Amino acid sequence: MTKNPSVAGAAIAVTPARRVSSYLYNHAKARLQLLLAAPVLWLALVYIAALLMLLVTAFWTVDEFTGNTKVAWNLDNIVSLFTDSLYSSVTLRTIGIALGVTLVDIALALPIAFFMSKVAGPKLRNILAISVLLPLWASYLVKAYAWRSVLSNKGVLQWLLEPLGLNTPGYSLWGAAITLGYMWLPYVILPIYGGLEKVPGNMLEASSDLGAKTFTTVRRVIFPMILPSIIAGSIFAFSLTLGDYITINIVGGPNQMLGNLIYTNVGTANNLPMAAALALIPIAIMFAYLGSVRRTGALNNL
After folding, report:
1. Are residues 166 and 201 located together in one domain of the fold?
2. Cβ atoms < 10 Å from Cβ of 113
3. Residue 173 sits in which domain range?
């Protein structure tokens, strides 16, 4: 039987595209590198380069006569961060609010996530999951201004507390902390819920069968397994609070956080080098925090 030469030639023809496909098929590492090349390049150019430029700008200065940024290398802005009482007090205030919001959100998220994952049935679990995600569909500003209405002297919160002889915190640091806690609570619930979903139910039953009380089971069985998820949720709440400046403007009254100082130096004072120096504070705090929790595996849950 005679073979058709044209068909045989077409079957063994190797095009450049086929060579590339064959190479990628046989080299999984090369496939991964090619897949990640574009996003990694974008990250390097847009994010890392911007951070490096921010670091460089912090060592510049502003001309006193023209108000223009001048490339004159000095440490004046960095020194001011440690010597000016305004910057140190606002930094401590911001860290305190961020820590408070994070701890409160974790305390609220743990029972909610546990009920969703281990107690609620499939239908109720879906309803609760939608309820947790529902606030994320609303605009940030809408939620902030809604809380401004709630916290006002004639708002819903005052109406509820007045019979108990209490008053609304109003537009204050407490009001800002309450609003920020509400804003970031879904970001804390979801990682913890995901971590609790991975805890086998038979482990809880085994702990109970061996005589462990509820607190002991939580402390020695559940908590070690969901610690990375808790830390992952805390990263969201802490970092988002640390960099926020809109909520404090809306419900924080005359108080300021680091974000407000950065915004003021960029917009009103036109002092970009000082704003860049201030921006290094939350960046340094987050790098230190991420470095301390890296070994827990929490970053793998993000």
Report:
1. yes
2. 26
3. 75-301
Each residue's pLDDT expressed in tens, for the chain with a length of 302 residues: 455 555 444 555 668 777 777 777 777 787 777 888 888 888 777 778 887 888 888 888 887 777 787 888 888 889 989 899 999 999 999 999 999 999 999 999 999 999 999 888 889 999 999 999 998 888 899 999 999 999 998 888 899 888 888 889 999 999 999 999 999 999 999 999 999 988 887 887 788 778 878 788 888 888 888 888 999 899 999 999 998 999 999 999 888 999 999 988 887 777 889 989 999 999 899 888 888 887 765 566 55
Residues 90, 32 share a domain: no
Q: How many domains does the chain have?
A: 2
Does one domain contain both 130 and 52? no
The closest alpha carbon to 176, from 150, 139, 138, 137, belongs to 150
Asked whether residue 65 is assigned to any structural domain, the reply reads no
Task: Confirm whether 2 is domain-assigned.
Answer: no
pTM of the model: 0.82
d(C-alpha 283, C-alpha 287), whole Å: 6
Residue 95 shares a structural domain with residue 210: yes
Say whether both 141 and 254 belong to one domain.
yes
